[in-house]
Amino acid sequence: MGGFKCACGTIFSGSHNPGRQFRLVPDELFDEVVWPAPADLDSRERQRAVEASFSSLYVCGNCGRLHREGDNATILTYVADVCPPRIWADFTQRDDIGRILLRQERSLADIRRQNLLLNPPLPVLLHDESGAEASGKAEFGLDTSGSHDETLWAVRLDDHPA
Prior knowledge:
alpha+beta, 5-stranded mixed β-sheet, 4-stranded antiparallel β-sheet, 3 helices, 11 strands, elongated
């Protein structure tokens, strides 16, 4: 790779890459690269798979943009979606302090599908099948003893006082 400049001004070069760099392996070649059969360790197919995996992904340590090497030495840039994640919710399921509980299977499926990690307060947009929507901040829920549980999600709606 030569060099390129992130939109935020950070410069990436062959010798200095601020942030982190990763190697990408195409799905169809993953098993050949990561778990080869002992007989295939020196095979031509494995060599091809390893060479094909040399596409790099760079994470800008300044702004978080992702940069991927494309065809013909192009750099493709990806920016995080600024919209809050949408999560299905049953608006009637609330805890003692009025927060919406995200414990139903549809809510958990949305959380898993989007690979969400709860780092409170996480802005979210809740919705249900009627078309109702409400924005809020996801926080840790409370377990049966009243202690914060990092595996339980509860959402304080933006129009609900703290």
